[in-house]
Design goal:
mainly alpha, 2 domains
Amino acid sequence: MDERSEYYTIFGSIMKITLKDGNSTKEEERILQAFGKKLGLSSSEYFDLLESYDKFKITPLHTRKARLENFYRVVDVVYNNTDDLKNQIKWLERMGIAMGFNPSNIKYIVLKSLDLFKSGEAISESVYVEEINTMNS
C-alpha cells in the first residue's frame, strides 16, 4: 500500500485500544467502522488495520491540554454515529483512559463532552478545552 490516509496510524492505535482485549462488542466494532469511514479510510486500509492493529504503538500524551485536544477530535468524529448512547459512552471512556485521563474523572469528561456536542452548535477545539477544564468551577 503506497498511499495511506492521513489518519491511518492514529486509527490503528484507536483500533488497538478497542480490540486488544478481544472483548469488543458489535456496537464498538460498528463505531470503529463508522469512525474509519468518517476519517476517509478506504475499505482496504480498514481491513489491513483489522489484520495488523496490534502492531501500532499507543503514544501517551503528556499534558492534559494535549489529551483534551485529541479527545475533542475523537468525540467530534464519533458523535451521533450510534443510537446506542450507553455503548458510545463506554467506548469513549475506554478511549479516554487509554489517552491518559484519570479513570475516576473520565466519566464526567465523557458526559460533559457529549453534552457540549449535543447542543447542535459547532464547538471549536479551544472552547471545548476551556469548557472541560472549567466544568467543576
